[in-house]
Design brief:
With about 220 residues, the protein is an alpha/beta fold. It is built from seven helices and nine strands, in the order βαβαβαβαβαββαββα.
Amino acid sequence: MTVPVAKKRVAILISGRGSNMVSLIEAARAPDYPAEIVLVLSNRPDAAGLARAQAAGIPARAVDHKAFPDRARFDAALQAELDAAGIELIVLAGFMRILTDAFVEAWSGRMINIHPSLLPLFKGTHTHERALEAGMRLHGCTVHYVVPELDAGPIVAQAAVPVLPGDDADSLAARVIVQEHRLYPQAVALIASGGAVLDGGRVRFAERARAAEDALLSL
């Protein structure tokens, strides 16, 4: 008799409409998906993604960063919510706040982000505009572990798209977001199942995850 493996308890942090959040929620509905989305938090009470999470039956709450005098106290409020829900993995999905080094280090190896570029290229914002200005022929997205330095954590997976003649930032962004919606659920599953772990500043893939790793990198 096979003993069912406990699913990793995941919180998704958002600031806006939560399109990547929705792709993760949909993926997690599969019985064999190794993660369970148990909480959605936003730093913006008006974030459209909160209503979308609630409609999917997931507890969703706002922790308004404007209600706190500094980042440390905001992070402490986030931590209280995460502790109360027994969270094991944090997934940032369009979360537009810089977290304190202490918070990031406390969640080392247990917090990931998706960034709309092929890191280490184009860290920060306005990635699509910058890719076009640089004359890139390939662009894409990256799932990485979060470290104190912005967009500098060890890479879990990437997906590339072509930059086409006549592209503007909107058309390029639309092509990248399709890949984000494919890549993020697969990367979360890989991490939640133990197939990818942060080890000494690098991502170590378990032997049983090699095929999954190859599939992610070939997207």
